[in-house]
Amino acid sequence: MGQKLLMKGNEVIAEAAIRAGCRHYFGYPITPQTEIAHYMAKAMPKVGGVFLQAESEVSAINMVYGAASTGKRVMTSSSSPGISLKMEGISYAAGAQLPAVIVNIMRGGPGLGGIQPSQSDYFQATKGGGHGDYHMVVLAPSSVQELYELTVEAFNIADRYRILTMILGDGVLGQMMEVVNFRDEEKIETYDKSWATCGHNNEREHNIITSIHIDPVILEQWNNDLQKKYRLIYEKEQRYELYNCENADIILVAYGSVARICKGVIKEAKEQGINIGLVRPITLWPFPVDAFEKVIDIPSAFLTVEMSAGQMVEDVRLTVNGKKPVYFTGRMGGMIPTVNDIMSKIYEIKNELKI
Amino acid sequence: MAVVFKAPHALCDVPMHYCPGCTHGIAHRLVAEAIDELEIEGKTVGVSPVGCSYNNYLYFNCDMVQASHGRAPAVATGIKRCLPENIVFTYQGDGDLAAIGTAEIIHAAARGENITVIFINNTIYGMTSGQMAPTTLLGQITTTSPYGRDPKAHGYPIRVCEMLATLEGPAYIERVSLHDIKHIKKAKEAVKKAFKVQIAGKGFSLVEILSTCPTNWGLDPVESLKRIEKELIPHYPLGVFAGSDLEV
Amino acid sequence: MLHEIIIAGFGGQGILSAGRLLAYAGMLDDKEVSFLPSYGPEMRGGTANCMVVISDSAIASPVLNSCSALIVMNNPSLEKFESWLKPGGILITDSSLVRNKIKRTDIKTFELPATQYALDADNKAYSNIFLLGKLIKETGCVKVESFEKALYNILPEKKHYMIPEEMAVLKAGMDY
Question: Which class does domain A241-353 fall in?
Answer without folding.
Answer: alpha beta
